Amino acid sequence: MFALSSGMPPAAIAVVRVSGARAGAALAVLAGRLPEPRRAVLADLKDMNGAALDRALVLWFPGPATATGEDLAEMHLHGGRAVVAAVAAALAAMPGLRAAEAGEFTRRAFLNGRIDLAEAEGLADLLAAETESQRKQALGMASGHVSRAVEGWQDRLLGLMAAAEAELNFGDEEDVQLHDDCAHRLGEGMKMLAAELDGWLARPGAEVIAEGLSVVIAGPPNAGKSTLINALAKRELAIVSPVAGTTRDVIETALALDGIAMRFSDTAGLRAESSDAIEMIGIDRAKAAVEAADILLWLGPAKDAPEHARAILIAAQADRWRGDAAAEAEAARCDLTLSAATGEGMDRLHRMIVEMARTLLPREGEAALRRRQRDALAEAKGWLEVVPGSREAGDLILLAERLRLAGGALDRITGRAGVEEMLDTLFGRFCIGK
Q1: CATH architecture of the domain with residue range 2-100
Q2: Residue (of 3, 78, 4, 62) closest to 28 by Cα position
Q3: Any idea which fold 209-358 has?
Q4: Percent of the chain residues past pLDDT 70, beyond the cut
Q5: Peptide bond into 10 cis (omega under 30)
Q6: Do 2-100 and 209-358 show the same overall fold?
Q7: Which of 6-20, 161-175, 285-299, 364-378 shows the lowest per-residue confidence on average (mean pLDDT)?
Q8: Is the predicted pLDDT of residue 84 greater than 70, yes or no?
Q9: d(CA 22, CA 92)
Q10: In what side-by-side order are the strands of the sheet with 260-266?
């Protein structure tokens, strides 16, 4: 198979990859020879009829120590559309070669054991990363951070399983050293491993990095919510009007603050009731958004703020009420004073949001789990948890079965079992040349 593995032309350089048993033969036809492995050489590329295609750098990587685990050839072409199209047409005309499907290079790397499923997911996230936090998290996943942790857990499980099997199958053999209370020792080992898995499950999920933290701006009508989201987005995203109830629905925009992906939402003004049925729908949606928010920016009286674990109470529109004693007293109850119109307090709000956001993200160097991985880890933890003193806690056969099931759940994280349907969805996220 072959594909363009770099950005779409026109560009300075275009990299075309060929992977599989016919890669060497294809490169030899185009370049006239097969270069020394892993050394870039300059070659005049020609099609099977001898017509000139391009002068390019070519590289030859014999398998299995390659990105895909197969023979691999690369051609670094001039990045014009016509050049890339001509080389692709020449490859397609060769027997046994075809254009790659989306994600097929990475899928072959997985199937040939070059990477595991967790690393492939990290690579997919790395290709889609738009912020610094997304890049760091995806790079850690692609580099095998989670995979190494799973490997360690699997080794410990194997040790516990071996002890159980030795007791069950060779307990009457004199040359097998066994412990007097094997079930108790297994239970303690399972308990310790379950506690470690629980620690990983307590970490923030990878979704908050990939999808962005939800930051909801809420408050009563005409509190300055739309002006604030426009100031944060630095564009006219929402309509600003002195007429109460102008915002009828949740308006969302994606922003990155200090490299952290966030989704800011402007909501309808919250009030007890309205004669406008459409506005009431917007109010209901605003309430739902507030409940689901990771961070709440409340623009309104502090006493009316919804209960929320991570709320920033803002005395907004300061340019309008400066000098009003009652307004000044109310502002003192808030976390900061702000005027989106003049810019007063915007820098401080930026810092407060970022500081609060960092408490919701994994710490530096700490890997976060995707939802699929969390589900598998939670299942493994469940199989390792046995009620002390129960009949099951003293039954080696049941404990051995629990260990086997826990191992199967961990296997799904790295892709060693039952993943065929998921592979189609995962690798379809990749570009053709990846």
Answers
A1: 2-Layer Sandwich (3.30)
A2: 62
A3: Rossmann fold (3.40.50)
A4: 87
A5: yes
A6: no
A7: 161-175
A8: yes
A9: 12
A10: 251-257, 260-266, 213-218, 295-299, 311-315, 336-337
Q: In a 10 Å sphere around its CB, with 0-12 CB exposed, 13-18 middle and 19+ buried, how is residue 17 labelled?
A: buried
Whether the pLDDT of residue 259 is over 70: the answer is yes
Higher pLDDT, 226 or 210: 226
Distance in angstroms (rounded) separating the CA atoms of residues 150 and 374: 12
What SS3 class is residue 327?
helix
pTM of the model as a whole: 0.66
How far apart (Å, rounded) are the C-alpha atoms in residues 303 and 259?
Answer: 33
Helices 132-142 and 145-170: crossing angle, nearest 10°?
30
Pull the structure tokens for residue 205.
């999920």
3-state secondary structure of 415: coil
Structural domain boundaries in the chain: 2-100, 153-205+368-407, 209-358
Q: What is the mean pLDDT of residues 5-17?
A: 93
Q: Distance between alpha carbon 352 and the CA centroid of its chain, in Å?
A: 25
Tell how strand 11-19 and strand 72-79 pair up: antiparallel
Name 380's Cβ contacts closer than 8 Å, sequence gap at least 6.
153, 197, 406, 407, 409, 410
Q: Are 197 and 381 in contact (CB under 8 A)?
A: yes
The DSSP-derived string for 159-184 is HHHHHHHHHHHHTT-TTS---TTHHH
CA distance 70 to 45: 23
Nearest to 219 by CA among 135, 313, 99: 313
Q: Name the 3-class secondary structure at 82.
A: helix
Nearest residue to 183 via CA among 159, 156, 163, 197: 163
- pLDDT of 428 above 80: no
Which DSSP string do the residues of 369-391 spell out, in sequence order? --HHHHHHHHHHHHHH---TTST
Strand partners, 336: 314
Q: Amino acid identity of 156? A: R
